[in-house]
Amino acid sequence: xxxxxxxxxxxxxxxxxxxxxxxxxELLELHLARIAERNPTLNAIIxxxxxxxxxxxxxxxxxxxxxxxxxxxxxxxxxxxxTHDVAGWRTxxxxxxFADHVPDADDLVVERVRRAGVVVIGKxxxxxxxxxxxxxxxxxxxTRNPVDPGRSAGGSSGGAACALASxxxxxxxxSDMGGSLxxxxxxxGVVGLRPSWGRVPTWPTTNHWETTAVSGPMGRTVADTALxxxxxxxxxxxxxxxxxxxxxxxxxxxxxxxxxLRVGWTPDLGGLFPVDPEVVAVVEDAGRLMARSGAHVFxxxxxxxxxxxxxxxxxxWLFQAGxxxxxxxxxxGLKASLAANVRAGESLTGxxxxxxxxxxxxxxxxxxxxFERYDLLVLPTSQVAPFxxxxxxxREVAGQPVTDYLAWxxxxxxxxxxxxxxxxxxxxxxxxxLPVGVQLVAAHxxxxxxxxxxxSFEAARTWGG
Length: 465
Known about the structure:
Layout: H1 10-18, H2 24-42, E1 45-46, H3 50-65, E2 77-81, H4 108-115, E3 119-124, E4 136-137, E5 141-142, H5 158-165, E6 172-176, H6 182-188, E7 191-194, E8 214-219, H7 222-232, E9 262-265, H8 277-292, E10 296-299, H9 307-329, H10 336-346, H11 350-373, E11 376-380, E12 396-397, E13 400-401, H12 410-416, E14 422-429, E15 435-441, H13 447-463
Parallel strand pairs: 2-3, 9-10, 9-11
Antiparallel strand pairs: 1-3, 4-5, 6-8, 7-8, 7-14, 11-15, 12-13, 14-15
């Protein structure tokens, strides 16, 4: 046994198991004890199966004792996001229509994480079909913020972020269309990376060329997030859009510096969306910290004025394609906000979708040109701090009413449609002590660079900059 705890970094936990300072069995029991302590209040881990987890930990220890080849995550307890299919494990997508669904095969993301040696313990809670950035559903209920259980943990990877922040798991996988890795990371005080499109391939899928949603990693530190990305990333012959870099190029340690970086800083992309003043204050502090650390920080931003129409059109089209038949068969089977989003797609024409893709191409060009002048873009991850958990979404932002469940997420989804990698890193707290993340964005394909910069920012915050 060792003085290792569930709050130790995933990097340290993986090293400890590999070096036999702690067994997979012992590490699992530590995490099960934390789950028993905190999950009844927070509701982050679902479909927990302690018996299967203990059998998996025993198998991991036996594999190590035999001298078998070890994956990067050997012996670490892991719960998969409940929208990722795990063979033989209940996977509901947060929908009562799939409350008893048990897949026959793993998603590619699950396949890779399992191959890396994790001990599967269960799933993490999601909103219904991962729609929305507040985690609640009619199957398992609401996931609550680990800092203040009266507040939202964000979403759609809210169960993942909450479980991670509270020490129930050392790492967490998730997915992100309009901010579903980044928003919960900001709300829960952890790191969430939306990788470049193509960095983490998806299979199986009905649409290889769908470019808005990606899978990605979360960690309590940037190095932990890089560790999981090193497992998730890399080409696969079943995914023709996958980028060619092997996952190993993202593995820690990370080496970077803020000094000399050209940074474009903005609180709102030139007034494109409102942001609560308490969030703006944290993002301003982040800019000052970077400047003190030697970065050249300028108030500047790319023109992403087309982002709102582009994202909303593509989301509605994709939701109608994905859930239209299900809604027709079960008119009352989907939550109201999701059903409305699906119906919004029914009126779209081919010209509407073509316009959205043309605009997305223009937005990618705008981002490319911006990153010819700057190394990094800095802006808020979320426009608000964690809001009350009994609301589906915040009712106002900076005094302006929120009209629907997407309107407060534009700081994240405006970046989505550029295709660029973006990471939310803990940056401070509101006066009430609620976590606030800052969003760091780099040019498409520069995921390793982005992680190195994020690690440098994390270190500067730790040591005062």
